[in-house]
C-alpha cells in the first residue's frame, strides 16, 4: 500500500451522479497478479466543513485523474526554512 500525508498528494475527480468532485488521494492499494487491480482511498467532501473517506477500484468510468503528486515547492509551507 502506498499512502500520502497531507500536502503534495495526488487527486482524482469522482463523478457523483450530478457533477465531478475533486478528491485527494490518501492511499493506493495494489493487489498482486493475476488480479492486478488497484483501490484508491480518497477524501470526498460531503459539506464545506466535512469529508468522508471512500474506496474506489481503478479503473472505472466514474474516476478521472485530477493531478499526480505535486512538488513540495508547489504547496504552501508552514515551516520557516531558515529555522528548520
Topology:
Blueprint: E1 2-3, E2 11-15, E3 20-30, E4 38-47, E5 50-58, E6 63-67
Antiparallel strand pairs: 1-3, 2-3, 2-6, 3-4, 4-5
Walkthrough of the structure:
The chain is mostly beta strands and 84 residues long. It contains no helices and six strands. Strands 1, 2, 3, 4, 5 and 6 form a six-stranded antiparallel sheet that branches. A hairpin with a 7-residue loop joins β3 and β4. It is globular and about 40 Å long. Residues 73-84 have low confidence and may be disordered.
Count every beta strand, where a strand is a DSSP E run of 2 or more residues.
Answer: 6
**Which percent range fits the helix content?**
under 10%
The total of helices stands at 0
Distance between the termini: 30 Å
Return the structural class. mainly beta
Shape: globular
- Determine Rg (CA atoms, Å): 15 Å
The main pleated sheet reads as: 6 strands, antiparallel
Q: Output mean pLDDT.
A: 84
What is the chain-wise order of helices and strands?
EEEEEE
Q: List low-pLDDT spans.
A: 73-84
Summed up:
This protein has 84 residues and is an all-beta fold. It has strands at residues 2-3, 11-15, 20-30, 38-47, 50-58, 63-67. Strands 1, 2, 3, 4, 5 and 6 form a six-stranded antiparallel beta sheet that branches.
